[in-house]
Design brief:
The protein is α+β, with helices and mostly antiparallel strands. 35% of the residues lie in helices and 24% in strands. The protein has two domains: 165 residues, Ribosomal Protein S5, domain 2 (2-Layer Sandwich), CATH 3.30.230; 124 residues, GHMP kinase, C-terminal domain (Alpha-Beta Plaits, 2-Layer Sandwich), CATH 3.30.70. It contains ten helices and eleven strands. This is Homoserine kinase.
Amino acid sequence: MTTKWSISVPGSTANLGPGFDSIGLALGLYLTLDITLQDHWEFEHSSEHLPANVKVEDHLVYKVAKETAERYKATLPSCKVVMHSELPLARGLGSSASAIVAGIELTNQVCNLQLSIEERCKLASKIEGHPDNAAASVYGGLTIASTLPNGQLELINARDVDAAFAVFIPNVELKTEEARKALPSNYDKAYAVHASAHANMLTASLLIKDYERAGKFMEHDLFHEPFRANLIPNYHEIRQTAQDAGAFGTAISGAGPTVISLISKDRIDAFVAKMKPLFPSYDIKAVPVDTKGVQVTSE
C-alpha cells in the first residue's frame, strides 16, 4: 500500500501581455509537497516563501484537497504535508494556482481517484477562476485556453518553447484582487477589437516560434497593463532598459508586480548579468520553461 507521495508543481506566468486570462506559461520554479499518511492533519513549511503558521482548516492546499474529495465523494485521509516553495507569494508567479493544482493532485493520489489530466485542469481552472496559471501548472509549457459557455474547457498546449525568460521580482506583494480593481468595468467596442487583434498576433507568433514578433506584441497589451502600470514598481524603466539590452519584449507577469522579459536563449545570461546592478532591489533571474507540468512520485 502506498503511504508516501511527492508532488512537484511548476509556477507560471500568465497573460504575456495581451493574452489576458487565457495564456499561461509554466516556469521552472516549483512548489513541492512531501505527503505521508498519518492519523491527523499537519502542514510543515520549509521555505521562506511560505507563511510560518497556518491553521490546517485555513490552508489553501487543504481546502482544495477537501473540496476535491467532496466533489468525487471520496474519503480524504489525514496526512502530514511538508511543503517547500520557490514561488514568492502575491508576486504574479502563480503561487495560488500551484497550490490549487497541488491540492487537487494530493486528493487524486491519496484517494486513488485516477483523474485525467483534462479533469484536473478543468477543476483547477474552475477553482482559480480562469485557465491561465492553472492550466500551465498542470500541463507544463505554453497553454492557451478558454472556457465555453457550457463549461467545456478548450486548450492548446505547446511544450517546445524555444526561448528564454528573465523575471524581475520585487520585494513587495500585489494581491490579484487589488490589481483587478484597477481595471475598467467595460471597454469600448473599437478599443476591445484592437486589443483582441494584439492578443491574436501574440498567440500566433508564439505558436510559430516568431519570438521577436511575440515580444513586440507582449508590449502592446490594451486589456490590463495600461491600467496596472502605476501599481508596478519601476515598470516603465524596466521595460525600456530591457529593450535596450536586447529583450524581445517585457510584460507584467500575471497581475504583477513581477515583470518578465522574453529573450533569445543565447543572450539570457548576459542579459541577467547586465540587469542585476541596474535594479539591485529586485531578484532578477533567468527562469527556464517547465515542460512537464505537475509530477508525482510515490513509495
